């Protein structure tokens, strides 16, 4: 397989993208940024008169989801940065998504309006009230077409349920409930009810000084509405079944790989922290991302992952420097392809990595306008880890650690990927039919 | 010896990061604080084990040393470490990546650990107080504390978060940081403690020695 990737770069002004998510059909792509804005892109329909524009994503809607807030009781500023966006499955003409910052989750309805009523009796076309004495006849308003307008309106606001910072939200397969997770607790919500949520996991110790691990990510199983997983800062994953008890502090399954003593180092503990966990579309596997690798786990085997892929093993000897410049705390996400045959995650220097699970091959690609022209295929990149540097290779010391790809998304059905590189969004498509 | 220096550098860096993270927008990040404290603890254990192995002879100190607090900290550290759930594995002494740390960044003034010597001269109060030797405020410090209590409205805005957050994740740390750093914060470093300003004796700042000791003690306390 040699896919040719064509590129469409979408520049963003000033704001760093903090989350990227395709909807269930793949026609819409939502991004959230540090400024609390959500920008939704829509895929262009196939158009014979403009064959090149097929499959291009253009801006569909932009709205301000969250504003900065101030918690007066704790004297804390609450950032407006969008941590996660999750789409609800589409049930009617409108689209719904959940977006969250550190403390508050909002349900947004995105709907199109392409008709307008004209001919009101009580007000004229400008909206001004008509003088009642001038109304001499009654007319029925008629609907007339108008330019398409996309409106986003907040339908629910789920607030005040989290003491710590929300890191994940996940919509259940029952389409009625969803979970939200912060560092120590996971809450279960009903999409219709905003003033109540159920706490289903609580790992807060009685004495905070005994705290040893926090929750880093959580997700519902794609098909079993009673099952969810959450990952921890110690590199473990717990699978919980909500049927077994109301409070799922006791896990049904516990996934942990025994540590390799030969690779133990000073920073071992913090690089084993899992930054993302994602179920495969099949529901049979899950994938976890820690600082240096991605691991694929079979849900039926808790003792160790079935696959481990090194993302940037050459950084293992640089951990001290990465601690100094805070890069060691970066939280990379990962994603599955639609068929679960490939997985993708980001790295530094605007590199991202793709692993073909069937062919057991991996490739490093770069998201940058300087190094690739639009519609040209991407050239695989290579990092020189030692010895003589070959032509076109990049040495580890030349990597730009400010250019990090933390958020990537894969179209649910096709080979289209979205890659967020700081404040730029790149969309790559596979041209092979 | 190099391992000790490196461990101390990492400890100082960790504490600085911990302090700095409280000032960031969005408040204290629990996960980040936990990770920093883990590194801090590993560095401390590495430092202590390296010190035990070193068996150094007595070496004359530069004038601004306060060795006793470190001893006290070690004892307290061990007590705290026992209280916390044990890690189960000992960190091996080897793993420090001293290659990557540029030598230029090391701070000679702060990175010289020494065994306790009761007769060492200290800039401030006598050693006969025992107990919290490192935390006994100097005259300067006491004055600042009185000023602080009397004029809380003059405390800069950015100092407000710690007390309100004290009931959050790490109350002891919050209180200690707030008490000790109220004066220091006005001349806090813009860069990481690799170039510590406390060494340039600014009148409003605390002496370098007690800053480090207090920082280390504060972290150990939680």
Automatic annotation (TrEMBL), chain A:
Keyword annotations for this protein?
Repeat, WD repeat
Q: Which GO terms describe its molecular function?
A: protein phosphatase regulator activity
Please provide, in alphabetical order, the Gene Ontology terms of the cellular component aspect for this entry: protein phosphatase type 2A complex
Q: This protein's superkingdom?
A: Eukaryota
Give the family, as the similarity comment puts it. Answer: Belongs to the phosphatase 2A regulatory subunit B family.
What protein am I looking at?
Serine/threonine-protein phosphatase 2A 55 kDa regulatory subunit B
TrEMBL record, chain B:
Instruction: Map out region (Disordered) in residue numbers.
Output: 56-170
Q: Name one GO biological process term.
A: cell motility
GO cellular component term, pick one: cytoplasm
InterPro entries per UniProt: IER (IPR008653)
Write down the superkingdom of origin.
Eukaryota
Compositionally biased residues, Basic and acidic residues? 67-78, 96-106
Instruction: State the family it belongs to.
Output: Belongs to the IER family.
Q: What is this protein called?
A: Immediate early response 2
From what organism does this protein derive?
Answer: Ailuropoda melanoleuca
Its taxonomic placement starts with: Eukaryota, Metazoa, Chordata, Craniata, Vertebrata
UniProt lists the gene as IER2
């Amino acid at each position: 397989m040699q896919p040719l990737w064509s590129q469409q770069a979408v520049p963003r002004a000033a704001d760093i993208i903090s989350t990227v998510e395709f909807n269930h059909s793949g026609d819409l792509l939502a991004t959230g940024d540090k400024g609390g804005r959500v920008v939704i892109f829509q895929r262009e329909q196939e158009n014979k008169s403009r064959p090149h524009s097929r499959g291009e994503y253009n801006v569909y809607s932009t709205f301000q989801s969250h504003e900065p807030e101030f918690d007066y009781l704790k004297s804390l500023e609450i950032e407006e940065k969008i941590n996660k966006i999750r789409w609800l499955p589409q049930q009617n003409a409108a689209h719904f998504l959940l977006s969250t910052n550190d403390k508050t989750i909002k349900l947004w309805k995105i709907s199109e309006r392409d008709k307008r009523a004209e001919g009101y009796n009580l007000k004229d076309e400008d909206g001004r009230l008509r003088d009642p004495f001038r109304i001499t006849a009654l007319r029925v308003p008629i609907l007339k077409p108008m330019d398409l307008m996309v409106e986003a309106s907040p339908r629910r606001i789920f607030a005040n349920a989290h003491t710590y910072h929300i890191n994940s939200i996940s919509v259940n397969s029952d389409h009625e409930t969803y979970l939200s997770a912060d560092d120590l607790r996971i809450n279960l919500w009903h999409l219709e009810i905003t003033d109540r949520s159920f706490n289903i996991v609580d790992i807060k110790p009685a004495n905070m000084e005994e705290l040893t691990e926090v929750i880093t990510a959580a997700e519902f199983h794609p098909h079993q509405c009673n099952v969810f997983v959450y990952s921890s800062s110690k590199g473990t994953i717990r699978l919980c079944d909500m049927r077994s008890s109301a409070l799922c502090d006791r896990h049904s399954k516990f996934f942990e790989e025994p540590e390799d003593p030969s690779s133990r180092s000073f920073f071992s503990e913090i690089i084993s922290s899992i930054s993302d966990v994602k179920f495969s579309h099949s529901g049979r596997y899950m994938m976890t991302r820690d600082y240096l690798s991605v691991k694929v786990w079979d849900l039926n085997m808790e003792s160790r992952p079935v696959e481990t892929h090194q993302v940037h093993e050459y950084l293992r000897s640089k951990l001290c420097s990465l601690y100094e410049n805070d890069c060691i705390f970066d939280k990379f996400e990962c994603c599955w392809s639609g068929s679960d045959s490939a997985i993708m995650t980001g790295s530094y220097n605007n590199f991202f990595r793709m692993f073909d699970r069937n062919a057991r091959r991996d490739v490093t690609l770069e998201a940058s306008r300087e190094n690739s022209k639009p519609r040209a295929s991407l050239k695989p990149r290579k990092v020189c880890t030692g010895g003589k540097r070959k032509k076109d290779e990049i040495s580890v010391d030349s990597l730009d650690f400010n250019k990090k790809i933390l958020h990537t998304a894969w179209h649910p059905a096709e080979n289209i990927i979205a890659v967020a590189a700081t404040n730029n969004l790149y969309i790559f498509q596979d041209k092979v039919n | 010896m190099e391992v000790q220096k490196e461990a101390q550098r990492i400890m100082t860096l960790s504490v600085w990061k911990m302090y700095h993270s409280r000032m960031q927008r969005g408040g204290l990040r629990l996960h980040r604080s936990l990770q920093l404290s883990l590194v801090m603890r590993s560095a401390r254990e590495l430092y202590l084990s390296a010190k035990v192995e070193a068996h150094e002879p007595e070496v004359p100190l530069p004038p601004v040393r306060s060795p006793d607090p470190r001893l006290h900290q070690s004892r307290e550290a061990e007590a705290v470490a026992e209280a916390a759930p044990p890690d189960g594995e000992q960190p091996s002494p080897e793993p420090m990546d001293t290659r990557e740390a540029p030598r230029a960044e090391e701070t000679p003034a702060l990175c010289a650990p020494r065994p306790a010597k009761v007769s060492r001269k200290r800039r401030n109060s006598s050693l006969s107080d025992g107990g919290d030797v490192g935390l006994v405020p100097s005259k300067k410090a006491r004055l600042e504390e009185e000023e602080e209590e009397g004029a809380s409205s003059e405390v800069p805005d950015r100092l407000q978060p710690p007390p309100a957050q004290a009931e959050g994740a790490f109350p002891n740390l919050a209180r200690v940081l707030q008490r000790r750093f109220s004066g220091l914060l006005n001349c806090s470093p813009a860069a990481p403690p690799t170039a510590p300003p406390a060494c340039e004796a600014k009148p409003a700042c605390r002496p370098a020695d007690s800053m480090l000791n207090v920082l280390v003690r504060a972290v150990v306390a939680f």
